[in-house]
Amino acid sequence: MTKITWKPGTLEYPLPPAMISCGTLEHPNIMTAAWTGIVNSEPPMTYVSIRSSRHSHSIIKESGEFVINLTTEQLVAAADFCGVKSGKDVNKFKEMKLTALPCSEISAPQIAESPVSLECKVKNVTTLGSHDMFLAEIVAVNVDDNYIDAGGKLCLENCKLVAYAHNAYYSLGRCLGFFGFSVCRNAMKINQRMKNVVVEVKTPKIELSKHRKPRRPLGSKAKSFGDKKFGRKNEAKSANKGKIRSRKSPMAKKSV
Ligand SMILES: Cc1cc2nc3c(=O)[nH]c(=O)nc-3n(C[C@H](O)[C@H](O)[C@H](O)COP(=O)(O)O)c2cc1C
């Protein structure tokens, strides 16, 4: 095998084709951004890199707020449209028949049709070259309650999220394992308990306990970042505390 070295480029995929909503309920806009991601856990922080020529750039620079809306298979055509048309020329909410909903912590609107919308407050703007990077804190998370089960767990696997890679959009396909499965002694057992998981994982032959502490199994008390995902009790608890808010709560709290 020979690997050919190319000149530097942005060939890091897949990425989320996120729908970034901004502006106000009266004058909302959406742009699609793939240059976005999580950069810190506590406080939860993210970034979005935007060219200064974008209509959204001036809106976000002035307001210091934006919303990251996750894109689903159903929303992918709208996401593409919001990535090729400018809010200078069209009302993208209207053209794509999307609904602007109020947020709980910021004035920018969220997209009702997106299952997960992250409310963000800009902390810093860094000019990088072609793009300005808006570093922001996630100040609230809005989740469609259709995707929250009876125990308060977010079933993100049911949202049909899409990925963007090398100029094309893809559905996510089948789950290949959970966080830490490669070092988990009970991988088979836990995978069987997870929905939509194809059980093909073989327990590693090496005696893992001698080398590395395995991750906690499903339902046990969450301890660290990765474990949180599998701590059902904890998720239910945090949902009860109001950390996972249904779409209804910000609407009920704030008038349009
Ligand atoms: C899949 C996809 C990803 C994109 N990612 C970015 C991005 O990360 N940053 C950016 O400045 N523009 C990005 N664009 C382009 C903008 O979304 C596009 O220029 C849009 O029309 C800007 O809208 P606005 O002028 O209403 O702000 C992307 C477009 C697509 C289709």
Q: Report the principal-axis shape.
A: globular
How many strands?
12
Arithmetic mean of pLDDT: 83
In sequence order, what are the helices and strands, one letter per element? Answer: EEEEHEHHEEEEEEHHHEH
Backbone CA Rg: 20 Å
* CATH fold call of the largest domain: Pnp Oxidase, Chain A
Instruction: Kindly report how far apart the N and C termini lie.
Output: 60 Å
Number of domains: 2
> Which CATH class of the largest domain is shown?
Mainly Beta
**Largest β sheet strand count, sense and barrel closure:** 8 strands, mixed
Q: Strand-residue fraction?
A: 25-35%
For the record, the CATH architecture of the largest domain stands as: Roll
List the helices and strands and how they pair.
Elements: E1 18-23, E2 28-33, E3 36-40, E4 45-51, H1 55-63, E5 65-69, H2 76-84, H3 92-95, E6 100-101, E7 110-111, E8 116-127, E9 131-143, E10 162-165, E11 168-171, H4 187-193, H5 208-211, H6 232-240, E12 245-246, H7 248-253
Parallel strand pairs: 9-12
Antiparallel strand pairs: 1-2, 1-5, 3-4, 4-9, 5-8, 6-7, 8-9, 10-11
The structure holds flavin mononucleotide (FMN).
